[in-house]
Amino acid sequence: MTTTAPQQVLAADLLAPVTATLKAMYGAEPPSNLVPDLVVLDDSGWRLASRLIDGSLLADLLDWARRRWQASVHAAAALAWKSYCYCVAMPAVLGWAAARRVPLLRPADVLIRFDDRRRSLAIGLRRSVAVAVLPSDPLARCGFPQVRVVRDDDQLLVTLRESLLDGHLTPVLDAIHARARVGARTLRGSISSGIAHGMLRAAGVLPGLTAADINTLLWTLGVQDLVELVPGPAGDLTVRRKTCCLAFTLPKRKVCASCCIKA
User: What pLDDT score does 255 carry?
Assistant: First the structure.
């Protein structure tokens, strides 16, 4: 009998609001870069995100991205980062939006896998992942070691920033910036646009989620100046970036709908 079964059940319970929201957002076709149900039960073939920060995995990721997109080094790095930061950010921001329950996405609790055959970059979470909750959350009274109870809404947002941005995305961004010489503003723009796009999609299944909530997240992470929420052709809010992910430099030129570059 193994000792991991209780952790597996616990991880599923901790992340239930996030997985339920993702299923409501995407139905039977969740984002291919996110592991179904988020938790990796068999981590063979997976590598820790912390290895992107210490440099031991970063060159492999950038080489994979260059082959994947047939792109220059800096464009490949920008596109790999765009996929990576979206998938890493979604569990945290969806947890906050859906239930004020924030997974703490420390690099040592996030797993990454990429390969040429599938042309895919996948992100998953270890069973050890912890969450931050408010005192009103039922988990606050359970006594589980993976649950961190914070004082109030403001402290929850501080915790989100410390775990997602300061402890994870910024160190990875700095490593990519140093290795591939992609502008830090360009990379930060993908954090902003990814969160804005994800939250606008989530608003379709979370009726209480407003543009003010999206702006709260952007301000919390210090990326509020890199996108605008503007009315689209149908009147619904859409995202307009102030930076570019460099997809327009690919052999098959692509200009995203939200890009600051005109098609």
Answer: 53
